[in-house]
Amino acid sequence: MILSTSLTATAAALRSGQLDPFTYIERICERIDTLDPQLHALLPEKDRRGRLQADIAALQQRFPDPESRPALYAIPVGIKDTFRVDGFPTRAGSRLPVELFIGPEASCVDMLKAAGACILGKTVTTEFAYFEPGETRNPHNLNHTPGGSSSGSVAAVAAGLCPLALGTQVIGSTIRPAAFCGIVGFKPTYGRIPTDGLVQCADSVEHIGYFTQDVADCSLVAPLLCRDWRSEYSVSVEKLPVLGVPDGPYLAQASAEALSAFEDQLTLLKKAGYSIRRISVFPDIERINRLHMRMVFAEMAQVHAPWLSRYETLYRPRTLAALREGQTVSDEELAQGREGRAMLREVLDALMHEAGIDLWVSPATQGPAPEGLDSTGSPLMNLPWTYAGLPAITVPAGLATNKLPLGLQCVGAAMADEQVLACVAPMADILANKVQIEDCKA
């Protein structure tokens, strides 16, 4: 089911007229018709093909001159079904009445439309972006989870149903599924992409993220979505970044297989000239995990307070349990959780400065995508970075023994999103060679 496609090359061909947008959309729709009945990445739509053709016709009329066409002209984008999009119902993966979620379109969707993108459709999400899975399957192996909560978005990009899709991350919902499905997932600094127009999960750590197939494609999109993007910092890095390994109990949360693969990745990068420094960090990772999760539960409970008593029977068990726990969190504990975000960010910033570290690197997940569809896998390898609101990206970094993808997670300092993308691009190329070799062996 996997199809390698370049957003950058496709967008350039569409803008120039080298690729006819109607022909391109027809190919996309044919692929959806063939694959999605098994993959379940997209929410059903009665006449997707007809709507997309009408959208393309409107774009052609709006931008007849190739020179005036915007960056994402005629690019179909998948939108996680927690975002409000004009003309589409919002369900947030739930059985609650859609009327509850009506509201203005998300600003980030407006931004994509302004850049010339057309909406492929809504993508499947877990219930309210928490842990109750949808029907989406991993395109590398349909018997395994694609991860969550941005499951439909990641599967759609990995399977070539679209070259770009929006997701969110409150714990690990962008980085984890991207690693499981062997593509790039990017979560900018907290607040860098506006979060209005969402069915919220937990505002204090609600991040917008997105999926592409490589870092160059990710870099094309970043200036279109991120506030005050500094393109001058996005050019090539003068020297190789220094990589920090967060040794200690945080890293020990990964499986033996993931840690072995991580050491192989570090060896490759070291041979390529990268300096690697091991730093003891997160000695209190269990406390951080608890602070984050209790804060998330409390904020979920606040979001759902207007609906829970009336529609309790429509919630699925894990979501309901999270909401019930959230109701037990005191105002004092919630304040501690929120205050902890800035404190952790300051600690990490100081460690990076003292050790001369440009990027933290770690396994993106505890291991490959688990078998079965009743779980989306653990987000613990992503949690502290999300809690601190730092920019994070995962790039494909090899295969597990079961031939499913593994990812390398790279994390930068707050508001250093431009540096993160510039630094990670050559690293991704080095690791891509490893992936290609392992694919051949497989």
From TrEMBL:
It comes from the Bacteria. GO terms for molecular function: catalytic activity. Residues 25-421 form the Amidase domain. Pfam families: Amidase. PANTHER family: AMIDASE DOMAIN-CONTAINING PROTEIN, TRANSAMIDASE. This is Amidase. It comes from Dictyobacter vulcani.
